[in-house]
Amino acid sequence: MARTQVGIVGAGPSGLLLAHLLHERGIESVVLENRTEEYVIARVRAGVLEQGVVDVFRAAGLSGRLEAEGLVHHGIELRFQGKGHRIAMSELTDGRTITIYGQNRVVEDLVAARRSAGGPLLYEVSDVSLHDLAGARPTIRYVHEGREETLECDFVAGCDGFHGVSRASIPAGVLTEYERVYPFGWLGILAQVAPSTEELVYAYHERGFALHSLRSAEVSRLYIQVPAGEEVEAWPDDQIWSELHTRLARDDGWTLREGPVLEKGIAALRSFVTEPMCFGRLFLAGDAAHIVPPTGAKGLNLAVADVTVLARALEDFYATGSDAGLDAYSDTCLRRVWQGERFSWQMTSMLHRFPEEGPFGARLQLAQLEQVVSSRAAATALSESYVGLPIL
Ligand code: APR
Ligand code: PHB
To answer: Which CATH number fits domain 180-269+352-387: 3.90.226.10, 3.30.9.10, 3.20.20.70, 3.30.70.20?
Structure first.
């Protein structure tokens, strides 16, 4: 039977970063991923890194390309009733910034680091199952290249996302799950066109939310709110552009540039937290433990915070034999997670169309937006949450 110190299920940002942070601390791990490397890298997902996350990557020697190609931003625009209002986030937060850098690139950088460290990273494993999680020697069984394998571990890290096997392996009755599903999703496109804005634009419109984000000087990322359950096939490109023009319109002549659509997909919006984020020697991290709606751009940032806390706790355990860090893991992470949930819920509630809330609800949303753009205190509170708390 093969052995390792930490068995890591999932090679998304959480699993790969954890493997790297452990390697730096002299702790061995094996990373098991059920999809192909190409699939995991190609998936278009988040794009905003908090300053604290960039700091984690820099301290871990992972920030070369991120610092060369990431776009450092100092503010965002809130757009409603035909007007744009800049939130000067850096000015309001002692100079803190965010960096625009696609999750695909984060994953590519982490795969490269894993390869150069020479640590095991197995793709296309199937039939992953977790055993003896409450004991001192948990095991992971899986099939790779047609062979059944068993990996004995000191600890298992469940970094396998919302639909993974890890959370589902915890016995019934242990976890409390908190969830809110929103009655809409986001249709996102990646377009081959220079962004029509320098900073991210979050737009509130009676037809629904729209977001103009970017990936580079040549590639734009745009989203519109669509009803839950909508199929992407029902949305031809011209109809998407037409909605974007309407929802992002400003009455000062600002225009949206169009370009070929490179990628298009719909994601449901959900808030979800499981407590605690562990069971015996299994520790959940990232999307396996919590989901936020994307409006606050917190998903990837929370995942990085979780694995940073976990790597430190494991370092402590192996250096001193103390369980204190591991015992505190869940509570430490959940404090940040609930702040992320609160902020993502607030941004989602403020900016989307909720038909069931009626005209009164819509008026309250506008009043809230007015407050954020006219009160320095309210803008500061939003900015502090958006740029995020330090992690290190
Ligand atoms: N066995 C092995 N791997 C699995 C299994 C399984 N049974 N189930 C899922 N996986 C893999 C998925 O294929 C995926 O590559 O686990 C990985 C989980 O990665 P993510 O879903 O990206 O989650 P995480 O690493 O926690 O990253 C969180 O990703 O979803 C975004 O917005 C989210 O940006 C946030 C970040
Ligand atoms: C993105 O660029 O993909 C993005 C930006 C901001 C968000 C969500 C997604 O709030």
So the answer is: 3.30.9.10
* Reduced 3-state DSSP string for 1-26: CEEEEEEEECCCHHHHHHHHHHHHCC
Q: What element of type H or E holds 68? A: helix 64-69
Band (pLDDT 50/70/90 cuts) for residue 246 is very high
Residue to probe by mutation, ligand 2, list 186, 187, 221, most atoms within 8 Å of CB: 221
Residue 47 in tokens: 């794009």
Q: Which ligand is nearest to the CA of 186?
A: 2
- % of the chain beyond a pLDDT of 90: 97
Nearest-atom index, ligand 1, CA of 16: 25
Q: How far is the CA of 315 from the centre of ligand 1 (A)?
A: 24
Where is average pLDDT lowest: 42-46, 197-201, 272-276, 354-358?
42-46
Compute the distance from residue 265 Cα to the ligand 2 centre, in Å.
14
Pairing of strands 278-279, 2-9: unpaired
| Domain spanning 2-73+99-178+270-347: CATH 3.50.50.60 | yes
Pocket of ligand 1 (CB under 6 A): 9-15, 32-35, 40, 45-46, 103, 128, 159-161, 164-165, 286-287, 299-300, 303
Q: Outline which parts of the chain fall under CATH 3.30.9.10.
A: 180-269+352-387
DSSP notation for 214-271 = ESSSSEEEEEEEEETT--GGG--HHHHHHHHHHHH--TT--------EEEEEEEEEEE
| CATH 3.50.50.60 segments of the chain | 2-73+99-178+270-347
Q: Ligand 2, residue 48: give the atom nearest the CA.
A: 5
**Mind listing the pLDDT tens digit for each residue in 194-206?**
999 999 999 999 9
Ligand 1 center–CA 241 separation, angstroms: 30
187 CA distance to ligand 2 middle (Å) = 12
Q: How far is CA 24 from CA 191, 231, 308, in A?
A: 38, 44, 12
Q: Which of 101, 142, 182, 202 is catalytic?
A: 202
73 is an active site residue: yes
